[in-house]
Amino acid sequence: MTGRGRGRAPGEYINLPSNAAADVDAYFEYRAIVGDDDEGKVFTPEEYDEYKKRVLPMRLHNRLYVSWVSPQGMDCILIGPQHKCLCRHKFTEHKTDFSEIPTERPILISCRQSGCRCVSFAYVANASGTSDPNCRCKHSLDNHTTKPPYKCQKNCNCTGFSAPFTCTCGEPANKHITLVETKEEREKRDHPTGYATPYQAMGGLTGFSSLAEGYLRLDPSGRGRPDDDFLNQPITAMDHPILRAHASHEPNSAEAQSQLRRVGETELDYYERRYQERQRLSRGIRAAPNPYDADAKLTTGIRNDKSPPRRITGSKK
To answer: At what angle do helices 45-61 and 21-34 cross, to 10 degrees?
Structure first.
């Protein structure tokens, strides 16, 4: 970076005309549709049109949905273009366009990279999200083969790569499977299929919520919609401030009445009372009756665990 008062180095800033936004959007759309199929050389308009005529019908009618599924059937991870396979290649580098949907099950999505022996895409579970995880045998992913069952090449007793962490759904990562299914098969599981899209290697992505993990998604592919008892539960002092602001829509609710300043109550007393309400709710216990209330009965404590009298031993001096 240049200091104050110094000239700007050539190429340090990119200046675009005001009408260049449409061209930038067109390039990003081109990259999302073509991916690496142009082998680094941008298609001409004629080649681009020919490519779309050949590929788009397959993506619109023969799309395959890929997800990382827990033993309970929840889609913990919906696979997208940048998710990595155990062969160390991304999902977009695998064969995702089919002129006809294969009839054999499971459906195999082989890797397109030269020299790779990957038979079908297998999601590599990564707890950190930054670097490739190690196997239970303590060796890295690069020390394992690229062909199932992905055995270790370090002459250990490893029978196949297994990520040693627990998914957010509560199940171990090695109990999940990478599921490839058609639109009809996914609809039988009552999982969303979204809209037809022309983009490459969309896998299981059907919307912005697909980027979240399964335990956070409220659609049928995730943890599902909360029940009516959860949605209709009363608003309390423990809820988010935005949610507490809606308590005024029900003036007779306990939270709406508690938010009002009482007669003769100072500002300090008001905030202390609200604080004590949150403390009681956080402990999950009901408030004890006020001993100074006229309707309350005062009781005295009784010691039921009397300890036996202590026996003093030793000689007197």
So the answer is: 60
